[in-house]
Amino acid sequence: MKVSDEARFFRGWLQRPLIMGAVSPSSRALGRAMASYVPDPASFALNGKVLELGPGTGVVTQTLIDRGVPEHSLVLVEYSREFCQLLRKRFPAAEVIQGDAYAIGAALPAWIGVSPLEAVVSSLPLFTRPDEMREAVIGRSLERMQRGSPFIQFSYALTQPVKAKRIGATLELSPWIKRNLPPARVLVYRAA
Which stretches of the chain are assigned E, i.e. beta strand? Predict the structure, then answer.
């Protein structure tokens, strides 16, 4: 990770703490843990997409590519204009959309069209939003995916941002990733 990414991220957090949700980018260790839950890219349907919500500076995006997800299969939805410009430079084959990931219910068809959605990988600060909004982000995503496809989220909290039962899902939790500031774990929701 570049020092300029740390500075850029921290500056964004100072300007919009509730939108950023973290003072520094995710670590590569957390990114690798999240990417490990994405299905094998060799099994993707033709034109299958991986939707990344809140990619920030692209740490998790790079780990998805390292896992074998084709860059052209990535749809990155980022709120920050500055981060969108950075993502377009770093990942020119990915589709970068500047938008509000919490508007997923109405926007998802425009973001991915009729392409199959293989996974959603989210770095959104869900705890900064009300329960209904959190449930909508995960629930709407799961409705659009094949049964068993993962909605992958990380959290620093001891509690779950969304109770799986409330959205008709199952939940798998990773061990804590201690090589992240602060330590985090991965939550994987799947339609029940």
Answer: 49-53, 74-78, 95-98, 117-122, 151-155, 169-173, 185-191
